[in-house]
Automatic annotation (TrEMBL):
One of its GO terms (molecular function) is phosphatidylinositol-4-phosphate phosphatase activity. One of its GO terms (cellular component) is endoplasmic reticulum. PANTHER family: PHOSPHATIDYLINOSITIDE PHOSPHATASE SAC1, PHOSPHATIDYLINOSITOL-3-PHOSPHATASE SAC1. It comes from the Eukaryota. This is SAC1 phosphatase. The lineage of its organism: Eukaryota, Metazoa, Chordata, Craniata, Vertebrata. The chain crosses the membrane at residues 107-129, 135-155. One of its GO terms (biological process) is phosphatidylinositol dephosphorylation. Keywords: Membrane, Transmembrane, Transmembrane helix. It comes from Sapayoa aenigma (broad-billed sapayoa).
């Protein structure tokens, strides 16, 4: 009222058009900030606008993408932030780049084997064989293969995570 936007006696809650514009601007700003920070749109922006089933599904999808990015593809971005903020200082004496770390074959092969084995297990369940023993044998084989590769990946989990590489030596101790 002091700024002349509302007349005397008018309440902000009565301004449906303004509320809609304000909530959309708020949600759009949240999306922009979340994309910069987490790599996906903000969660629950549809709640700010109007909660829907599709918004709930998108929140789940964005959470899965965030989990993947945070664990398997975010190390380089954290390195860039640390370098930019001065949390890591480049040692001029060191000639080798700490960013170049050669990955072993298992980093690509094991996840592919696990996905293929799990998919085959599901296919064997859906497309039953001539006898139940044949189906059971296939399901047990592919289930064991998928569980075995998952166990190997889990055991070597720290090797699969894309951790930042620009870590000061003092912080590592």
């Amino acid at each position: 009222q002091r700024l002349g936007v509302l007349h005397v006696g008018q309440r902000i809650e009565e301004q449906a058009d303004f509320e809609k514009i304000y909530k959309n601007a708020w949600a759009d700003n949240a999306n922009a900030c979340a994309k910069q920070y987490a790599g996906t749109g903000a969660l629950k922006t549809d709640y700010t606008r109007q909660r829907t089933q599709w918004g709930l599904i998108m929140d789940g999808w964005n959470s899965l993408i965030r989990y993947y990015k945070n664990n398997f593809s975010d190390g380089f971005r954290q390195d860039a932030i640390d370098l930019f903020l001065g949390n890591y200082s480049v040692d001029e004496v060191e000639s080798a780049s700490p960013l170049h770390v050669k990955k072993d074959w298992k980093f690509l092969a094991l996840p592919i084997i696990m996905v293929v084995a799990f998919s085959m297990c599901i296919i064997c369940l859906l497309m039953a064989g001539d006898t139940w023993t044949e189906t059971l044998a296939y399901v047990l084989f592919w289930g064991t293969a998928s569980f075995g590769t998952f166990a190997i990946i889990l055991y070597n989990g720290k090797d699969f995570v894309d951790a930042p590489k620009l870590v000061q030596k003092e912080k590592m101790d």
